[in-house]
Specification:
By secondary structure, the chain is of the alpha+beta class. Helices cover about 35% and strands about 20% of the residues. It has six helices and twelve strands. Strands 3-2-1-5-8 form a five-stranded mixed sheet, with helices on one face. The chain has a five-stranded mixed sheet with strand order 4-10-9-6-7. Helix 4 (about 215-225) crosses helix 6. The longest helix is centred in the first third of the chain and has 32 residues, at about 15-45.
Length: about 325
Amino acid sequence: MWNFPLLPEQASTTAGRVDALYWALVIVSAFFSLVIVIGLVYSAVRYRKGSKANRGNVKNDYLPLELAWSIIPLIIAFGLFAWSAKLFFDMHVPPRNALEIYVVGKQWMWKVQHPQGNREINELHIPVGRPVKLVMTSQDVIHSFYIPAFRVKQDVLPGRYTTQWFEATKIGEYHLFCAEYCGTSHSSMIGRIVVMDPADYEAWLGANAQQTMVASGEQLFKQFSCQTCHREEDGARGPSLAGLFGKTVRFTTGETVRADREYIRESIINPGRRVVAGYQPLMPTYKSQLSEDQVNQLIEYIKEVEGKKLASTRN
């Protein structure tokens, strides 16, 4: 017997929904293709040259038929659009309680770091039954993070963050690929997703414990003497970072932006592009001094520790 499944195993909460939409598109396409082909073949045979088919009393138009072949496909198309749009938004809006994990694509490997500090190369350990949000960026060229069993794929871009989320439903190991041609060794940029029982996942975190991202970010913060300018006092040369994440920032141009990962990353790599109102463009760029992993660690530190400083002062 042949053991050749048409689709990969379904191992996430969205896999079944993606497959259902896929088969619906296949069935609709096949149905209309069959109707058209049958009509063409029938007409070609019946009205071929020399046939005795009655060609008289031909109508130039038939309104019910014209309405039918216009309205019915339109309704089906709108239905498929609504279905796919709902699925698209559900797949791109992660739950608030999702576990955040950082991923950096690099020719030709996947570098993963958990908030607890655990680091992996071409592997990603996750707990079953819990939403996982990947915060991804590339260190060089465009990559694409693809897990066939989860039916998720997301481009990983240099110079910005992209995200994708999923919730695994089955314990096991699943293939991970780069689905964007990224150079000569693109085909070797593969890995595995290891889905574990939540208790086993916690044990794995403990057994492979490393310095947390927040602690690493704090070391970098002090190593580059960021606290000499970003102080919580009047007359500081740089704006305070306390409570920065999620805050609205106003620039000297009058423009405003919400302080998210993109903004903080830009402020570290290209600080002169937008200057906070009330301050001078004194901050140097750290583009050549920090790796993408270190930028992520600084962002986690600013997000977690500096935000808590503000909360503690209010209390």
